[in-house]
Write a structure and sequence with these properties.
This protein is mainly alpha-helical. It contains five helices and no strands. The protein has a domain of about 70 residues.
């Protein structure tokens, strides 16, 4: 079990590192950073609906993986599940960019450069962010986080299930 968790965490780290290396953020000007601070719930909801479609597709694929007895079919279904999972992760990553959840998520702080490809972000770098949001913007941001975090947990669950099925021994040929 510990080995599966470690492998899933490693896979998540590798996927994150690939996207970070492929897309290095450019420093934003002070004025444009202030404009990006406001959360955009309408755009977020549109992206959320697309990701939810992918999550439903992943769930259906996982159900087929559980039911199949054919090892070759299971491998094909696992590959399809992996592709769908990567698409969903890409969309989730995009939510942190400009226009999505606002703030510094698309900049050199959290999100793209959180630990890889940029300095680690602490509360000192968030100085003034929340205090500059209006009460309505704070509510919008909280709404988006409340929607995003369970989706992120669902993604981790799918990674763990995927890892489990990848590690299952193949039945001996008859």
């Amino acid at each position: 079990m510990k080995k599966s968790i470690l492998i899933a965490a490693l896979v998540a780290t590798v996927i994150t590192a690939q996207s970070v290396l492929a897309e290095q953020p450019k420093p934003a000007k002070k004025q444009s950073q202030t404009q990006q601070m406001a959360p955009n719930p309408a755009e977020f909801d549109k992206q959320l609906a697309q990701i939810q479609e992918n999550m439903n597709q992943m769930q259906a694929q996982m159900e087929k993986i559980r039911q199949t007895q054919n090892p070759q079919e299971r491998q094909q279904l696992l590959q399809q599940h992996w592709t769908t999972m990567q698409d969903a992760m890409g969309m989730m990553h995009g939510m942190w960019g400009s226009g999505g959840m606002g703030c510094c998520m698309g900049g050199p702080g959290m999100g793209h450069g959180m630990m890889m490809g940029g300095p680690m972000m602490g509360w000192g770098q968030m100085q003034g962010y929340y205090s500059n949001l209006t009460p309505e913007q704070q509510k919008q941001r909280q709404y988006m986080m409340d929607q995003y975090l369970p989706m992120q947990q669902m993604m981790m669950d799918h990674m763990m299930q995927h890892q489990y099925w990848m590690g299952q021994p193949q039945p001996a040929p008859k």
